Amino acid sequence: MLQSRFLNRAGVRLAAAAAFGLAGVAAVSAETKWDMPTPYGDSNFHTQNIAAFAEDIKEKTDGSLVIQVHSAGSLFKHPEIKNAVRKGLAPIGEVLVSRLSNEDAVFGVDSVPFLAPSYDKAWKLYQAAKPAMEEKLDAQGLVLLYAVPWPPQGVYAKKELTSVDDMKGLKFRAYNAATERLAQLAGAVPTQVEVPDIPTAFSTGRVEAMITSPSTGANSKAWDFLSHYHDTQAWLPKNMVFVNKGAFDALSDAEKAAVMDAATEAEKRGWEASKVETNGKTAILVENGITVVEPSAQLIEGLAAIGETMSAEWQAEAGETGTAILEAYKN
């Protein structure tokens, strides 16, 4: 009898231990890991914001959802990221919004020169365009999480440019359809160059001028191959973070809420970080010998005329959706 009781108790203990072990295995297997490709290096403020976003999600979900950030195009190159997420090769990713303007004009509105040349105006334009962006992404099985602007765009060159005429014939770095069109309208020669290739492109003579942010200029050490930065504040292009809809739908309700909460915080944090970035990186340009130029009235007038042309072209291309975005922005 005693032996029987001992065996029964032992059996209970073994069963309990087995159940505990299986629960432990289940807990480990319940962890979801998302690999996240991003285009820029770890020192970039967008990447740093994403790292904080990933950490927030890990904390908010008690580790049930973990995002592994693969920066600097190490998992997928910038042009490949959107389709990789769409196809489910990566669950989540980051891209420059205007890179997608060739597939739909809606994604190019934030790169129309002088349409929204300040942070306040850029935020209003984003709110006006966001519903259309979400609709376009949803049709492709993607969910917009948040968007953060780069610092305002300025013109870099090897000399001071006093008018648009000074841009004629210059080999001009382009990174999307809008910068390519701007170069064409200015009489420059557009050349597609990604951020990591900027120093080499200038040193080999592939390009002679570019329009980009103080952030990209400082990160690329523009002082090694340029001398002037014209603070035109032409526009504030945005990066966006989005997720594969299937991957998002597979999360628990609590995990979905955690992701959206972290996205809201990342967006707010990112916009403030962009402002800090503008001031800090402009100061770095000056410290390293770049001459920061207040654009002449003649240069601004010429660029503004280009902006008016591009705004009209964008509205025509975007059709009723574009008209609705501009009306919402103006109102």
Automatic annotation (TrEMBL):
Keyword Signal: yes
Gene3D superfamilies referenced in this protein's UniProt entry, alphabetically: Bacterial extracellular solute-binding protein, family 7
Signal peptide: 1-30
Keywords for this protein: Signal
Ranges in a coiled coil: none
UniProt keyword annotation of Signal present: yes
Biological process terms in GO annotation: transmembrane transport
NCBIfam families, alphabetized: TRAP_S1 (NF037995)
Protein name according to UniProt: TRAP-type C4-dicarboxylate transport system substrate-binding protein
